[in-house]
Task: structure prediction
Amino acid sequence: MDADKISKILEYMGAEKIRPDENNVHSSCPLAPWKHEDGIDRRPSFGVKVNRTGLSGFNCFSCGLKGKDFKTLVWRWMEFSGKTISSEVAEWIQRTEYVDLTAEGGAGLIYDLYPEMRKDHTLPEEWWGPFQGSVPQYLLDRGITLETAKTWGLGHDRERHRLMFAVRNERGELCSIIGRKIHNDAPGPKYWSATGMKKGRHLYGENMMMDAGKVVVVEGTMDVLWTWQCGIRDVAAILGSALTKDQARTLIKWNHPIYLFLDNNMAGIQGQLGAINTLEGQVPIFVVKYPEGKKEPTDFSREEVINAILTAQLGDVWKLWAERYVEKIKAERRRKKEELCGKVRK
Result:
């Protein structure tokens, strides 16, 4: 990248006092809100070495942040800020041949090194290596045992304080890596996903299926771990509240009854309605009923999880109730909005 593009990206990331010349771009540190005292770069000494044909290195003499590829700085900023880059910027930074994962000052981030890998939607197994060997205490505090952690092959990113999950396909090949925040006040989004896997292409837990005669579908990674630990061995997460077409094709291919166990909120209810509309006529569908006061699978005890699966409602019956419930909630929201608008006019 040339100095002009690097300057525009730094401006996009919120850097100040940007001063480009032929060989360097100087500015305040774009990661100052997270890396500097009080979140301010008081003595700007950040610079990027312009390299038009290869990797552009960067260095902040104030906080010590440095690396051999400017692209790694952009991805780290995205992780901390929870924001995304424009398609134009994404095209600029993808033009380099590879990303250096051994940036000085800490463990490298996980990226899609080689765009051609997207054809197979798999990642090099060595990308998972830095996270193996331990899990954070947070996991045990949530009631997940070490046996479960070992069986599911969980990991720990000590530098960014995240619980790490390897998303694998049915053959066990690495497709993506997910990091879950373990401290609420930590920077960045709650979940961070590596590139390389189209969102929604796989179910988390595909590689763990034991052909037990039914598949329980939950939303998140922690829901999977807890449900599995309660004795339900064929459980998978859609990593959100909406079942995708790719995930639906996998469930239909397995040809087992599907037990929907999404969260007990509006997003979960609407997600289950969408899943039923996608799957009905292809496989038998059941929906787990929530007793009062419970919002997600991790709120259930082991006995309650097993009983909830055994007493799940037929999808068609649940669908009739859910459609009426959703319409009732929407009507209530419209009424409140109209009342509020009326008060504002007065």
In short: The two ends are 57 Å apart (CA to CA). The chain has eleven helices and 14 strands. The longest helix spans residues 315-345. Residues 209-327 form a domain with the Dna Topoisomerase Vi A Subunit; Chain: A, domain 2 fold (CATH 3.40.1360.10).
